[in-house]
Amino acid sequence: MKGFLKRAAAAVAVPVLAVLVGAVPAQAQTVANGSLSFSGDEGDWISGGGSYAYSTAAKDRLTVNATEDHNHISVSVSGFNSDWWDLDLAAPSGTGLAAGTYDGATRWPFQGANAPGLSLGGNGRGCNTLTGTFAVQNVVFGPHGYVQTLDATFEQHCEGGTTAARGEVHIANPPAPAELGIGLKVATDGTASTLNGNAYLHGTVECTAAAQVTLSGTTTQVKHNVIIRGNYSAQVACTPGAPVPWKATVVPAGTTPFQKGKAEVVTQATALDPNYNTNVSVDDTSVVTLVKG
Prior knowledge:
With 293 residues, the protein is mainly β. The chain has two domains: 4-21 and 179-292, Immunoglobulins (Immunoglobulin-like, Sandwich), CATH 2.60.40; 29-172. It has strands at residues 4-5, 16-18, 29-30, 33-40, 51-55, 61-66, 72-78, 84-90, 100-107, 117-122, 130-141, 147-158, 165-172, 182-186, 189-192, 199-207, 211-223, 226-238, 244-250, 261-272, 279-292.
């Protein structure tokens, strides 16, 4: 078995594994261990001059998600006491969040391209405009915006005021789970039916986690200057540990049946990564020899 690749195509039926990185933000993760706390000056609109502290240890629910490019992290709190808060931290456009201090932050997501973004709000309160700063002490990402570690402090001023809310956030999640890998093999032998003109293909798929794999493709054959072509699809319940066989029937699009001889088979196998909610796909182009059947 070859190593994991992002895309693969073969002129012959060689098994390949692929991981396709999606372009959508990661789905919200439940934080395993984390906390969000803040307090404010008297007159600060967000805090009301009070202090707030939430943690997974206190049975508060925290979730986190980040964009694929690591530019923005959002932390949400659903308090055991029914409080709710959202904290957003964003680096300037085109950069990813990293350890360091981000001065001159304005309200996310309306900050300028060269400015960092910040927003703390909840319990029915939020800033229309804000200025602030935040400092990231540590941040570790996994695939697809998975947030493993975040330690940051922040200070936010609403509506140009001098009063502020100040706080910190800490997140410690397990290491990111591996991305789904799928493998595809198209057997180099197939059958051209003399009864109905269909072509019959087979092969195997492999996966690193349980997944429903959808195969789709096109078979093309040229006989006596006539192009014979048909599409096909199949689904396989793939489980890790061993190759899982698949079969597909290709019905010719025209009136000319598939015949004995070589055909080009183009196949794509796609599955949904259960951890990251992104599609993973692998492509294969093989030459299959059809025999009469």
